[in-house]
Design goal:
By secondary structure, the chain is an all-alpha fold. The protein folds into two domains: 14-243, MFS general substrate transporter like domains (Growth Hormone, Chain: A); 285-485, MFS general substrate transporter like domains (Growth Hormone, Chain: A, Up-down Bundle). Helix content is 72%, strand content 1%. The protein contains 22 helices and two strands. The protein has helices at residues 12-16, 22-43, 45-48, 85-89, 97-124, 126-144, 150-177, 184-208, 212-220, 229-232, 237-242, 246-259, 267-277, 280-283, 295-323, 329-353, 356-374, 382-410, 413-438, 442-459, 475-498, 501-516; strands at 54-55, 75-76. It has a two-stranded antiparallel sheet with strand order 1-2. Helix 5 packs parallel to helix 7 (150-177), helix 8 runs antiparallel to helix 16 (329-353) and helix 12 (246-259) packs antiparallel against helix 13 (267-277). It is globular and about 80 Å long. It starts with 11 loop residues before the first helix and ends with a helix. Mean pLDDT is 80; it is low at 1-8, 483-496 and 503-517.
Length: 517
């Protein structure tokens, strides 16, 4: 007799999350709405240090003294902005590098926040670390506006980046761990929709508040509202189950049922049966560094790292690229954000229809293609170039949404935040490099962004497909993703063989013999 296979057990928490409930709406509203002020801090330097003209010799009339170096007593043109980083700290001529340096340091802070707090959330829980990241962002965001020197301003910007980078990564993982397979694409798109709302509304805040300190304080104060998330929300039951806190996971799920007005089922028995039904190998938790002991996981991590780097350098680089294409900074930033909104909504439907890998390859290729088209358009057709560049940036942002979802589907729960933190670090490195690429001519920087995006298309080929699969809970789950395509092919071949005339005749004869016995 052939050895019977043990049926695969479904995580009982997944069963409870198949339907969107009142608690889902509550937790998603809090986490998603937090992304608006958080993302304001990602783009705030655009309006903290916009291009600002100055005149020498104490006059603002003569163009002969406009933006001339050296200039000891500059008179700033405050017709658009009353105060910026440049006018506040006297940044001009040989000290202009401090503006781009401030942006790079901010991205370094986001890099450190995503990495360090990603590891902390895998160890101490999603909610307390999320609240801590919001507290850091709110405090240091307010301190940025009070700094008296450029050095202290840049230092506070670094800590501000730490809080922003951590809040983005942890908030996303917490949202994903509270939804089922069928809702994962929807939640991923909805998570990025407030980011685009932040992109569109930030120019409005800057338009109303032209003083950099007032602007910075206004976008920082709302973050304090989300520090209380630790006491308003419940910890991820999937994380609690993974770290062995069975009683706490049961308490969360029972509270979840009571909040939704549902009868508390025997969730403890289901969880204990699920744990007992798992093999020793499937219960094994791994550390981040142990990824490199497994060839397939290492390949997945390396491919995702390349794609994250390309998304980071391209999306934020092209956003800055668009801002430099014409003089109306408020209109440019609002337009680029507004054009991303329909692309984000369209992606909701495409994620449901298309496989992850094919979709990511398509967005990478199209973003590279449109970027190469931009540099072929004559310079005097400014608005046409801006619109095509915005469409290109829309595809870059769509790639960003896909890789966020793709990466959490490739790695097990015990290292999911750590991996996402590491990949966010790679993305931040790309963002740090982006301002240096934009120092080049428009044609040179456009070619770099276009070619890199097309290269990312080829890298996607080596990744396994994860659509319609449960989030991997163990090392074996993640490793089995690489075999899914092969197993599906074998299954299809087996079904084909069973439907041939000879196979049907043999199967019928076997069934008759079994009945006779």
């Amino acid at each position: 007799m052939a050895k019977s296979k043990r049926p695969s057990l479904t995580n009982p928490i997944e069963k409870h999350f198949k339907v969107i409930t009142r608690y889902h709406c509550f937790i998603f509203f809090i986490l998603l709405s937090s992304k608006i002020p958080v993302f304001w801090h990602v783009l705030n330097l655009i309006f903290l240090s916009p291009p600002m003209d100055y005149y020498c010799n104490g006059t603002i009339i003569s163009n002969a003294t406009k933006n001339v170096c050296p200039c000891e007593n500059p008179v700033w043109d405050r017709s658009v902005f009353t105060e910026t980083m440049q006018s506040k700290f006297g940044i001009l001529c040989e000290s202009n590098w401090l503006v781009s340096f401030s942006q790079s340091i901010h991205f370094v802070g986001m890099l450190l926040g995503a990495l360090i707090f990603g590891f902390l959330s895998d160890k101490f829980g999603r909610l307390p670390v999320f609240s801590l990241s919001c507290l850091i962002l709110a405090i240091f965001g307010c301190l940025v506006s009070a700094m008296p020197t450029a050095a202290s301003f840049i230092l506070m910007r670094c800590f501000e980046g730490v809080g922003a980078g951590a809040a983005i990564v942890i908030g996303y993982v917490l949202c994903i761990e509270y939804c089922s397979v069928r809702h994962r694409e929807i939640i991923t798109v909805l998570f990025h929709l407030p980011i685009k709302i932040g992109h569109v509304t930030l120019p409005g805040v800057s338009y109303l508040l032209r003083h950099c300190d007032e602007f910075q304080m206004t976008i920082s104060l709302p973050i304090f509202l989300y520090v209380g998330a630790q006491w308003l929300l419940m910890e991820s039951p999937k994380w609690l189950l993974d770290v062995g806190h069975i009683d706490k996971a049961v308490d969360v799920m029972e509270t979840f049922d009571r909040f939704n007005g549902r009868k508390c089922e025997n969730i403890r028995g289901e969880i204990e049966s699920y744990i007992a039904g798992q093999s020793d190998g499937s219960r094994t938790r791994i550390k981040f560094w142990q990824i490199f002991k497994h060839k397939k996981l290492t390949l997945n991590l390396c491919c995702m790292a390349v794609i994250y780097f390309l998304c980071g350098i391209s999306y934020y680089g092209v956003s800055q690229y668009i801002g430099n294409m014409s003089k109306n900074i408020h209109a440019n930033v609002a337009l680029s954000g507004a054009l991303l909104l329909p692309g984000t909504i369209v992606e909701l439907f495409l994620l449901k229809l298309l496989p992850r890998r094919l979709f990511l390859m398509g967005t990478n290729f199209l973003s590279g293609l449109f970027m190469l088209i931009v540099i072929c358009i004559p310079v005097h057709l400014t608005w046409f170039r801006v619109v095509i560049a915005c469409i290109c940036n829309c595809f870059f942002f769509m790639s960003f949404i896909i890789v966020f979802l793709y990466s959490v589907e490739l790695f097990p729960t015990s290292i999911r935040n750590s991996v996402l933190g590491f990949l966010s670090v790679i993305s931040r490195i790309g963002q740090i490099v982006a301002p240096q690429v934009n120092v080049l001519s428009e044609s040179a920087s456009g070619i770099i962004y276009g070619v890199m995006a097309i290269f990312g298309t080829m890298v996607c080929y080596f990744l396994p497909e994860t659509k319609n699969t449960e989030l991997p809970s163990s090392l074996n789950d993640s490793k089995s993703l690489s075999r899914k395509k092969k197993l599906d092919k074998e299954k299809n071949n087996e079904m084909t063989n069973r439907t041939t005339p000879d196979a049907i005749q043999i199967n019928s004869r076997d069934n008759i013999n079994e009945s006779a016995l």
